[in-house]
Amino acid sequence: MKKRLQPVTLVLLGALLGTLAMYALSRKAEPPAIPPGDSEVIYRFQVIYHNQGIWALPQWLGIEVHQTAPDLLVTQEIITELKPDFIVETGTKYGGSALFYASILDHVNPSGRVITVDLNPQVEQASKLPLFRRYVRVIKGDSVGPSTLAQIAAAVKGKRTMVLLDSDHRGPHVLKELKAYSAFVSKGSYLIVEDTILDRNPLGIRPGPLAALHEFLKTNPPFIIDRSREKLLLTFYQDGWLKRI
């Protein structure tokens, strides 16, 4: 005759299985271990991907996005997890990335909104789409100008907010953006510094976004680099996934 497990045993067994399941899920979220020598291959591919302009080829709903697909996918994961009230973006260009963020908000937080800033936004085509008109607010102006910052501050006050920096990639400007826009990021949310690859690219910018963010981190302990967001290997945002803790 088979013995039946006691209730206490079942509880302990359930707790153990739950712990193992959570451990397995957490392990999946970590960046994969890179075999010796392969990091150079990954770096070379990233440089080729950037310098050949492949990043400019993707479109979202017919609008140019100017991002890598893996970075967009990981950003989508963050938006889905946070369900932010506001996504603030500097660097609009054609509005493709703002439209992409709006698409995710439409599913996870329909009351959320995107604010995108650019000196010369070219959103004529994007503005024809109802999704863009509903979710996206375009501010034309200097991303670190007093008027721009005042408008954003008034909109996001007390709201769950994440920020993505993708405008002028020169180090001094990025550092100004980091100091200004970090104030808008809510606890547990992200301040994403894009195109840090430029500091390591032979054809890039020095000092660029990477140098700026490391300078910023010296005096801003509430932010840490979340390298788990680099799990897909191809990213233009190395060290750029900053989480407010």
Task: Sum this structure up briefly.
The protein is of the alpha/beta class and 245 residues long. 41% of the residues lie in helices and 15% in strands. Residues 1-5 and 7-28 have low confidence and may be disordered.
Parts with pLDDT < 50 across at least 5 consecutive residues: 1-5, 7-28
End-to-end gap: 55 Å
Q: What form results from the Cα inertia axes?
A: globular
Mean pLDDT: 89
What structural class do helix, strand and pairing data support? Answer: alpha/beta
Order of helices and strands: HHEEHEHEHEHEHEHEE
Q: Could you tell me the number of beta strands?
A: 9
Strand order of the largest sheet: 5-4-3-6-7-9-8
Q: What name does CATH use for the topology? A: Rossmann fold
Helicity range of the residues?
A: 40-55%
Beta content comes to: 5-15%
Number of helices: 8
- The CATH homologous superfamily name equals Vaccinia Virus protein VP39
Architecture, according to CATH?
A: 3-Layer(aba) Sandwich
Main β-sheet description: 7 strands, mixed
- Determine Rg (CA atoms, Å): 20 Å
Number of domains: 1
Quickly name the level 1 CATH class: Alpha Beta
